[in-house]
Design a protein that fits this description.
By secondary structure, the chain is of the alpha+beta class. The protein contains one helix and three strands; from the N terminus they run βαββ. The protein is about 15% helix and about 15% strand. Strands 1-3-2 form a three-stranded antiparallel sheet, covered by helices on one side. The longest helix has 12 residues, at about 10-20. It is globular. The structure holds zinc ion.
Length: about 70
């Protein structure tokens, strides 16, 4: 599962992943920068909790681009 979330709700997303999957969550940033400048796909994803543009994606598995876990 994947949950898209904004900065404010990333902890909520992490909690939900842990509750659902009972595994350490994997978090990825949709932004290339830490200062909040989102350069990647902003607008394509929205926070599941408030509907703002998502900044992070939280998942219970690594993305397809990361193998060998
Ligand atoms: Zn939010």
């Amino acid at each position: 599962m994947k949950i898209f979330c904004c900065k404010e709700h990333v902890e909520v997303g992490l909690d939900n992943i842990v509750d659902e999957a009972e595994v350490p969550p994997f978090i990825d940033s949709l932004s290339d920068k830490e200062n909040g400048e989102v350069t990647n796909n902003l607008g394509d994803f929205t926070c599941e909790y408030c509907g703002k543009p998502a900044v992070y994606v939280v998942a219970n598995e690594h993305s397809d681009t990361i193998c060998g876990q």
